[in-house]
Amino acid sequence: MAVIDARVMRSVLEHLWDQHPSDCRHWFNDIEAVDMDGGTIRFLVQEPVQLRYLQRHCTDQFTEATQVATGRLLGIEFITPKDLVNHTPSNDVVTGTSIQTEHEGGMLLSPDYTFESFVVGPDNRLAHAAASAVAQQPGRAYNPFFVHGSVGLGKTHLLQAICQQSMRNNPDMRIYYTSCNAFMNQFLEAVQDGDMGSFRHRFRNYDLLVVDDIHDLSKRDTSQEEFFHTFNTLYQGGRQVVLSSDAPPNEIPDLEERLTSRFGCGLVANIERPCYETRVSIVKSKAALRSLELPDDVAGYIAARIDTNIREIEGAITKIQTMAMLDGIDIDLALTKKSIGNQVKLNGPAQLTIQDILDTVSGYYGLKLTDLLSKRRHKSVSLPRQIGMYLARKHTRFSLGEIGGYFGGRDHTTVMHAVRSIDGRRTGDNHLDQDINQLESVLLED
Ligand code: ADP
Ligand code: MG
Fold it and tell me: What is the pTM of this model?
């Protein structure tokens, strides 16, 4: 086993930051090249989530960088301190560090989603405070903890931060993070395999169960039943349950009343769309993860252009970073404008008004505007109306209640029902899907 010269690691890192900056994270600078054995070089990272990130996203990049640094084509292995002590990988199912490899259906945690990188603002203060209390005192602070808000506002980020913090506080804790769909798939598989016993045993033995996007339970009767029992067992045993959803418990359609009331019995926190100042800080936090310092005017420009879905910020930063790299220049406002300034979609849908949608939909179906807004329930009117609500939800930043207001004073549950119904039918109904594609292309063209 050969020890590696420190210069090798430096030059590997240099190559990575230079050639693959958007894959790099600030903690890359702490990675060590520990040793080499039989043509394989081993890189040591501190956290299991970092390990998974490298394994999933960076193997090719490290192979390339190592080849450049050493002049040899070497195998790459990423390891954590545990592997240094214990050379054979352990199969211990119950430790927190094994949670991600343990179950195929479980989602991987992103090392980017920690409390440190989560920006707190007036729009998410309660959700953040509660999440951090839950991570400190699982099962005792708020149970269940239920966080809701629309897409891209940081629910998954918070949920994963809870897992990572709890894992750090207590490495022996049995933690499981899953999307609701993955939970249901595992459940259905267990049913098919006639293996419900072990499924139940597993799910009812976690100290912390985190289920993302629990609204997906709606309309799934048997899964709801199973989740109800899992929930009760955990809850009664004083274990922590954390859930996220796009709506508060009582607004998730087709959810059994007993689940609605269970979900609401701990703490329910809402995440709102972030204000401009929060968005500027999020842009900076995202850049800092990549060791990128953005001038204030650049961060401000990005924050101003992206206000609906925070997820788009990352794409924008990647784009700007890549442009800067290709042109070999520093990031400044001019470059930023050039990179994302003409990106219609970043901004376009946000500027779409509900009036545009009402006009386009009524025109397309040959209806009068007053028909769309009326109380008439005939299918020739109600379907276009539902499609209009669906489009408004998808392409504007208005809340369900606001959209209901525009569509003839309907309440938010009507809008939510419409959105889900169209969304669900779109996959199976080609005719409907074509209509919506047509409408979207009219609405979204510049
Ligand atoms: P959701 O699960 O609510 O749809 P995500 O948690 O996936 O949203 O967040 C989308 C993106 O926005 C992620 O990259 C996340 O890190 C980022 N993000 C959202 N809110 C914040 C915040 N307050 N601070 C830092 N990043 C945030
Ligand atoms: Mg999410």
Answer: 0.70
